[in-house]
Amino acid sequence: MTVQTLTIVTDDGVRLAVEVYGPESAPVLLLSNSLGTTMAMWDPQLADLSARYRVVRHDGRGQGQSTCPPGAASMDRLGRDALTVLDALGAARAHFCGLSMGGMVGQWLATHAPERLLRLVLANTSACMAPAAAWQARLEGVLSHGMGPLAQASLERWFTPAFLAAEPEQAEWIRQMLLANDPQGYAACCAAIRDMDQRRTAALNTVPTLVIAGQADPATSVADAQFLVDAAGDARLVTLPAAHLSNVECPQQFTQAVIDHLG
Ligand SMILES: O=C(O)CC1=CCC(=O)O1
């Protein structure tokens, strides 16, 4: 696969690491990663999606190779980062697929910039992840003690016990991705989730939307996904036999569901 790598600078000076794959003439598909991962989380989907779409993936601010100023990020800021990427690539409209925090960015785009979206995939996500105190505790924990203490519990939310037992190399790949996080960048994104509540704007989503949920996801439940479907004007639900990182645990089913929706 041929990749074009670039750095896009936002209006607040953040450097976003971006990769572009696939035919130049194909519709753009922007992928948005979850908290604690990088754009590499989309590796299982890359070959199939880039055969059909102009796939653009980037490390969200504070993750991977993307920078982040100290302090809190916000969902508004993460959403405007996504628009900055589209603007820099000259993409007037694009498909968007985001998982967890990436799906929160997708919700923000559906509300604030629907004219930029073709079709939307919201995977393993929620309109609100209360209580705020839990996010505050998590961000204070990483700033004081680093990523290490979080790793095992995160993997146990992100994958089912059966997957962890059957696919130790995949689990280790994701564990190393999480451990490599800059605690300051991770904390900035925790603050964005802490302060987010998109429940009252969810009904403004009229973009054709696929919501994907993991049947065994303890972080963002099937009920959270159903809320997004019920609120939106044109949405349907697919559930997969997975926990939170359903695109890694059920890669073929996830990819097929996305292709079926985007066409
Ligand atoms: O790590 C978690 O708690 C799950 C999660 C919430 C937002 C996100 O991107 O991952």
Automatic annotation (TrEMBL):
<dbReference type="InterPro" id="IPR050471">
    <property type="entry name" value="AB_hydrolase"/>
</dbReference>
<protein>
    <submittedName>
        <fullName>3-oxoadipate enol-lactonase</fullName>
        <ecNumber>3.1.1.24</ecNumber>
    </submittedName>
</protein>
<dbReference type="InterPro" id="IPR000073">
    <property type="entry name" value="AB_hydrolase_1"/>
</dbReference>
<dbReference type="GO" id="GO:0047570">
    <property type="term" value="F:3-oxoadipate enol-lactonase activity"/>
</dbReference>
<dbReference type="InterPro" id="IPR029058">
    <property type="entry name" value="AB_hydrolase_fold"/>
</dbReference>
<dbReference type="InterPro" id="IPR026968">
    <property type="entry name" value="PcaD/CatD"/>
</dbReference>
<feature type="domain" description="AB hydrolase-1">
    <location>
        <begin position="27"/>
        <end position="246"/>
    </location>
</feature>
<dbReference type="Pfam" id="PF00561">
    <property type="entry name" value="Abhydrolase_1"/>
</dbReference>
<keyword id="KW-0378">Hydrolase</keyword>
